[in-house]
Give the backbone structure.
Amino acid sequence: MTESKKVKAFKELHSLILFYAENRDMPVEPNFDFFGDIKFYCDQLDLDFDEFTNTFGLKQLF
């Protein structure tokens, strides 16, 4: 993966973390898969999904 793609993946991952912080108790569109997106970008950046979600305190509320 090129550096440019890694930066874009990080940007998307950062946006998702901000979204979680601001909207975690709000309803979302039915086809929005927050944790699926987090996993996708963690994979793109070669980050461990479980460690990432634990470090940032990302918990599924359902």
